[in-house]
Specification:
Elements lengths: L5 H26 L11 H4 L32 E3 L6 E3 H4 L4 E6 L15 E6 L5 E7 L15 H9 L4 E3 L4 H9 L1 H4 L1 E3 L7 E3 L9 E3 L1 H10 L16 E2 L12 E2 L2 E5 L9 E6 L4 E6 L2 E2 L10 E2 L1 E6 L2 E3 L8 E3 L3 E9 L2 E9 L7 E3 L7 E2 L4 E6 L4 E4 L1
Parallel strand pairs: 3-6, 4-24, 6-7, 10-23, 17-24
Antiparallel strand pairs: 1-2, 3-5, 4-5, 8-9, 11-21, 12-13, 12-25, 13-14, 14-15, 14-16, 17-20, 18-19, 20-21, 21-22
The structure holds zinc ion.
Length: 387
């Protein structure tokens, strides 16, 4: 009969535990444990941004952070930060051009679909004091965005600034002339000439009933030759983002709970109010006195950062509808609302296809917390009141 001593059993158990531990380590190595999340940029510590996806980086992102010891290159990060909203996403989901969609804001168009999923939304005046949205999508897969409306020249200035194909339903003559002239830069997806990705809702009346899904618009963009199925170089960044809200480096500014923008030019019921939800760290949107919500799930529209961008505009002489010209080339001032505070900033854009930049008083790019950004483009004499 074999007798096994307690010491031998203990040694055997120790060997077993060590073997299991070694096996676990090698399994983690095979899985490619990341030394640092997302893009690896260390810019957040210096307040200069999130690293991650930058133009011209070849799509490989940052340096992988502090894990590259012993002369070995760190494993490539498999996530990166969205250059439009700062969200951490699978890298593959960011290797596309952003898509821009012109969305209606007239009363018959409300509630809209898909605005809540956008990374970045511009709101601009059109003729008659009404507003329209230009919503940008990069990684989200909204199945319905709309109602989609017609193009204006200045919406192209915003989409071209980000190299984004732009979806719309017809346009003013000036906008359609621009599309023809700027074809290679305009990247137009016009329902009137390319209806495939669009559909009409029977629940709404025309012209407030055209919709499209992001996946279909992406397919259309590829089919029209605007981009390969996957880009090796990601999009131009819209802003500099910190990886987490507490790392954002922003001017102190003034504390604000609520603000209202009343667009000039007789903008009827298009004044907007944003209320700060301190728990969510987001601004909840009201149109007039009503919460503006998404048609699909009823969720109130919200943004982490709201920028009121003052841009001079004028009615185009002789235009029968009173259409506007917005002077988006040049520069001007902004009011930024972020983290329950407000401060002033500047914007600049050197040409129609150039990027749009936002800088603080010292000239440094704004370093925003991650989250959706809404930019309200308003005439300089628009009223902004705060509480
Ligand atoms: Zn995003």
């Amino acid at each position: 009969m074999m007798v096994v001593s307690r010491a031998r059993v203990t040694r055997a158990l120790l060997v077993l535990v060590l073997a299991v531990a070694l096996a676990a380590c090698s399994t983690l190595a095979v899985l490619g444990c990341r030394p640092q999340l997302a893009g690896g940029g260390t810019g957040a510590d210096t307040g200069s941004g999130s690293g991650g996806v930058t133009p011209g980086s070849g799509g490989t992102g940052g340096t992988g952070g502090p894990g590259g010891t012993g002369g070995q290159p760190p494993p490539p990060a498999d996530t990166a930060f969205c250059p439009l909203c700062g969200a951490e996403e699978p890298r593959a989901a960011l290797l596309h051009r952003p898509l821009a969609v012109c969305v209606d804001n007239q009363s018959a168009a409300r509630p809209q679909s898909g605005l809540k999923d956008a990374c970045l939304v511009y709101e601009v005046l059109t003729e008659g004091g009404i507003t329209r949205f230009l919503a940008f999508y990069l990684h989200e897969k909204a199945t319905a965005v709309g109602p989609i409306r017609s193009l204006r020249p200045y919406l192209l200035d915003l989409s071209m600034a980000l190299g984004a194909p732009i979806a719309f339903v017809g346009g003013s003559q000036a906008a359609l002339d621009d599309v023809a002239t700027l074809a290679a830069s305009a990247l137009a997806i016009n329902e009137m000439s390319y209806p495939y990705p669009f559909w009409r809702s029977e629940a709404r009346s025309s012209p407030h009933n055209a919709y499209a899904g992001i996946a279909e618009l992406r397919s259309a963009s590829v089919a029209l030759g605007y981009e390969p199925a996957t880009l090796s170089n990601p999009t131009v960044p819209a802003f500099s983002f910190a990886p987490t809200p507490d790392k954002a480096v922003l001017p102190t500014g003034q504390t604000v709970q609520r603000f209202t923008l009343t667009y000039a030019a007789g903008a009827g019921d298009y004044s907007v109010t944003y209320d700060f939800d301190s728990e969510a760290g987001q601004w909840m949107r009201y149109l007039g006195r009503s919460a503006q919500v998404d048609a699909v799930d009823g969720h109130q529209l919200r943004a982490t950062t709201v920028i009121v961008q003052f841009v001079s505009s004028s009615v185009i002489p002789g235009d029968s509808e009173g259409r506007l010209k917005l002077n988006l080339t040049g520069g001007g001032s902004c009011r930024v609302f972020c983290q329950g505070r407000t401060f002033t900033a500047s914007w600049a854009k050197s040409g129609r296809t150039s990027g749009l930049t936002y800088t603080d008083a010292s000239g440094k790019p704004l370093n925003l917390p991650p989250g959706p950004v809404w930019v309200l483009i308003a005439p300089p004499n628009s009223a902004v009141t705060t509480q």
